[in-house]
Amino acid sequence: VMSILLHGDAAFAGQGVVYETFHLSDLPSYTTNGTIHVVVNNQIGFTTDPRMARSSPYPTDVARVVNAPIFHVNADDPEAVMYVCSVAAEWRNTYNKDVVVDLVCYRRRGHNEMDEPMFTQPLMYKQIHKQVPVLKKYADKLIADGTVTLQEFEEEIAKYDRICEEAYARSKDNKILHIKHWLDSPWPGFFTVDGEPKSMSCPPTGISEELLTHIGNVASSVPVSDFKIHSGLSRILKARSEMTKNRVVDWALAEYMAFGSVLKEGIHVRLSGQDVERGTF
């Protein structure tokens, strides 16, 4: 498995989660053995100029924090993009470290249907409107080289349009879901049998009070004998034992019961993060 993350240029420079994931990239138990970051760098974050959005010339400078190699490539040259991407994949495969591909390109239209970039970036957008689109530029080059004929090019375009049209037509019939194995946010009616297999219904997950009491008792005891525990901890365990006896729970005990019930079913639970080692959560 190789993870590929797609970023916008403004998001790459401006979102803390990017910096955080770079710093996770080499931690034991968290690493993906190298992520390929692809930055679609269209020189503008919604309506903001780069010089107003970040302090460094490149949005990708944040990747330097882990010494990840950064390739800047002209996105108007598809073959250069392919070459750089294959070098990036080879780097990741060889060194199992993050790598960044910065696609230097432009955004032809506004950020959304309501956005008119000519209001805020008139000079830039006058230049953009003069640009020959990359598909036409590359097709013209291939036809001039004799690599493909005009007819072959038009057939490919028609074939692609047909794929899109057929998918659009199919999307109107939502009874059949080919993607349900990775869909994790059900909408109303998702679990009804109409057009869905019965296995999609959710089994009851409740457990008996007897089992809850057992988990509560285990959660408030010390697993080894003759082991001196910190007095602060024994106070917590005592309070937990009292709660179990009185049939009340706080957040921590409720969480413990959830984990405990899953463990009882033989399912491995891994807690990770900065505060779990000390038992804060």
What is the compact description of this entry?
The protein has 281 residues and is an alpha/beta fold. The chain contains ten helices and four strands. The chain has helices spanning 9-14, 16-24, 50-53, 78-95, 122-130, 134-145, 150-171, 209-219, 231-245, 251-264; strands at 3-8, 35-41, 70-74, 99-104.
3D architecture notes:
The protein is of the alpha/beta class. The chain has three domains: 3-131, 3-Layer(aba) Sandwich (Rossmann fold); 132-167; 209-265, no CATH class. It has helices at residues 9-14, 16-24, 50-53, 78-95, 122-130, 134-145, 150-171, 209-219, 231-245, 251-264; strands spanning 3-8, 35-41, 70-74, 99-104. α4 links the parallel β3 (70-74) and β4 (99-104). The longest helix has 22 residues, at 150-171.
Structural class: alpha/beta
CATH superfamily of the largest domain: Thiamin diphosphate (ThDP)-binding fold, Pyr/PP domains
CATH architecture of the largest domain: 3-Layer(aba) Sandwich
Q: How many domain units?
A: 3
Give, in order, the helices and strands.
EHHEHEHEHHHHHH
Query: What's the Cα radius of gyration?
Result: 28 Å
Give the CATH level 1 class of the largest domain: Alpha Beta
| Counted beta strands | 4
Largest sheet: 4 strands, parallel
Q: Say what the CATH topology of the largest domain is.
A: Rossmann fold
End-to-end span in angstroms? 31 Å
- Order of strands in the sheet with most strands: 1-2-4-3
Report helical residue fraction. 40-55%
Mean pLDDT: 89
